[in-house]
Design goal:
about 20% strand; alpha/beta; Spore Coat Polysaccharide Biosynthesis Protein SpsA, Chain A; disordered N terminus; about 40% helix; two-stranded parallel sheet
Length: about 260
């Protein structure tokens, strides 16, 4: 199979604003659960980043029935930034990360879609680099990677770092996706590409991200990478537990058997 995956550093991409950035619209899908402390700050950072880059943008907040008042905060943000920039598309409860993207995508009005976390694990400052890299090479997907030079992880203890590295190594060994960060969830997609990948993806929860990038290779989509620094959440508790780790291991095996 042809290798359509390329790893580029920030220096490979143009640092001058591209015309493409001004004629396209970028929709950020932001799944939330108990993120009332984080949501105003991440939204402010996104608005600041897109405004400075003169990019047309919107944030689609997919809240899974947070009991901490996340939706009330989102409604206040709509008053500040306007409903043309902030969409609130709640769901009844926690239904999984993959289905959150399916839900949010049907409301996205941009022709490019960015998926990321709301807890500051992913900093919006990397988005312009991702947009420029995509525009320069017309990539179908640009993925933020923690595991290439210039990337990294901060706020994790040694055990968690080893688990993450081991998980990526296991999946890479079995699935050979030609991606350095299978479990990463900070990515830029062409909207039609994301539609096809979501329709083809079977996994739910945290395995969803891994299968998406594996399916991208299966469909011969081109993928670029931008090194990012991943920072553990500032407020709230991590939603990763033993159940998610078990799902991941099972998901790797299921994909290995199926693909």
């Amino acid at each position: 199979m042809e290798d359509n995956h390329a790893i580029l550093t920030v220096d490979d991409a143009s640092h001058n604003p591209s015309d493409i950035m001004t004629v396209n619209k970028y929709s950020v899908l932001l799944p939330t659960y108990n993120e009332r402390e984080n949501l105003p700050i991440i939204t402010w950072l996104l608005a600041k980043t897109f405004t400075q880059e003169n990019v047309d943008w919107e944030v689609v907040i997919i809240d899974d029935g947070s009991p901490d008042g996340t939706q009330e905060v989102a409604k206040e943000l709509q008053k500040v930034y306007g409903e043309d920039h902030i969409q609130l598309r709640p769901r009844a409860g926690k239904l999984g990360l993959g289905t959150a993207y399916v839900h949010g995508l049907q409301f996205a009005t941009g022709n490019y879609v960015i998926i990321m976390d709301a807890d500051f694990s992913h900093h919006p400052k990397f988005i312009p680099q991702m947009i420029r890299l995509q525009a320069q090479h017309n990539y179908d997907i640009v993925s933020g990677t923690r595991y290439q030079p210039g990337g990294g992880v901060y706020g994790w203890d040694l055990k968690r770092k080893l688990v993450s590295r081991g998980a990526n190594y296991l999946a890479t060994l079995l699935l050979r996706p030609k991606s350095s960060d299978l479990t990463g969830s900070f990515r830029l997609y062409k909207k039609d590409v994301l539609y096809q990948l979501i329709n083809a993806t079977i996994s739910k929860g945290y395995v969803f991200q891994m299968e998406m990038i594996v399916r991208a290779r299966q469909f011969n989509y081109t993928v670029g990478e931008v090194p990012i620094t991943f920072v553990d959440r500032v407020y709230g508790e991590s939603k990763m537990g033993l159940n998610e780790i078990t799902q991941y291991a099972q998901g790797v095996w299921n994909l290995f058997v199926a693909i």
